[in-house]
Design goal:
Elements: H1 2-28, H2 34-59, E1 68-74, E2 84-87, E3 92-99, H3 105-108, E4 113-115, H4 121-128, E5 144-147, E6 156-162, E7 168-173, H5 179-182, E8 185-190
C-alpha cells in the first residue's frame, strides 16, 4: 500500500514536471509542433519593430530650413533701422542687433525685446524700467519671446527663436528707459 502511494506521488510529481517542461518548451519555441511557435516568436517581434520604425518615420521632422536673419541697427537718435518684418508661423528667426551709436552704454544702451502679441507693452516697460540689473528685461516676465543683451557702442548680439504659430502682430523694441517712446520699436507680422 505504501509503495502504491509513493507511486501515485511519483506520478503526480512527474505530471507536474511534465507540465512545467511543456510551459518552458512553449516559451523557448520547442513544442512538438515547432514551426508555428517558432514563426510566432519570430513574426511578432518583427511586426513590432516594423510598426515602431514606421511610427518614428511618420513622426520625424523634415530638415529644418536656416533661420530668417534680421539685422537691426540702433543709434544715438533712438531709432531702429528696421521697423517691420514678416515671418511664417513657427519659422525660426535670428535677430542680430548692432549698436552703431557712440554714447556710452549706461546712458544710451540698446537691446531688442520681442513680446507676445497679448502682452501690454506699457506694463512690460514699467517693469523693465526697474530691471537695470537684467538689461531692462524683467526676470521671469511672461510673454517675452526673445531678447538680446543690452549693448554699448559697436557691440552686437544675436538671438534666435521660433515665430509664434498664431498669426498677428508682435512688437519688438528697445526696453532701455525712454527709448520706446522715442521710436526704437517695430513690428514682426506673423502670417501664412
Amino acid at each position: 500500500m505504501k509503495s502504491q502511494m509513493n507511486d501515485d506521488k511519483k506520478c503526480a510529481a512527474l505530471a507536474k514536471i511534465g507540465e512545467a517542461a511543456n510551459k518552458c518548451a512553449a516559451f523557448n519555441g520547442t513544442f512538438q509542433n515547432k514551426k508555428p511557435m517558432r514563426n510566432t516568436l519570430i513574426k511578432y517581434p518583427l511586426y513590432i519593430i516594423a510598426l515602431t520604425c514606421s511610427a518614428l518615420a511618420a513622426c520625424s521632422q523634415a530638415p529644418q530650413a536656416p533661420p530668417k536673419e534680421i539685422k537691426i541697427q540702433a543709434d544715438d537718435k533712438m531709432k531702429f533701422d528696421v521697423t517691420a518684418f514678416e515671418a511664417k508661423p513657427g519659422q525660426k528667426i535670428s535677430i542680430t542687433l548692432l549698436n552703431v551709436g557712440t554714447t556710452p552704454k549706461f546712458s544710451m544702451g540698446h537691446n531688442c525685446v520681442v513680446l507676445d502679441r497679448n502682452v501690454n507693452v506699457q506694463t512690460f516697460l514699467d517693469a523693465a524700467s526697474m530691471a537695470a540689473a537684467t538689461d531692462y528685461v524683467p526676470k521671469d516676465f511672461k510673454g517675452v519671446l526673445a531678447h538680446t543683451k543690452l549693448l554699448g557702442p559697436s557691440e552686437t548680439d544675436t538671438v534666435q527663436f521660433n515665430a509664434p504659430y498664431v498669426p498677428g502682430e508682435y512688437p519688438f523694441f528697445c526696453s532701455f528707459p525712454g527709448h520706446y517712446s522715442q521710436g526704437t520699436k517695430g513690428v514682426m507680422t506673423v502670417k501664412q
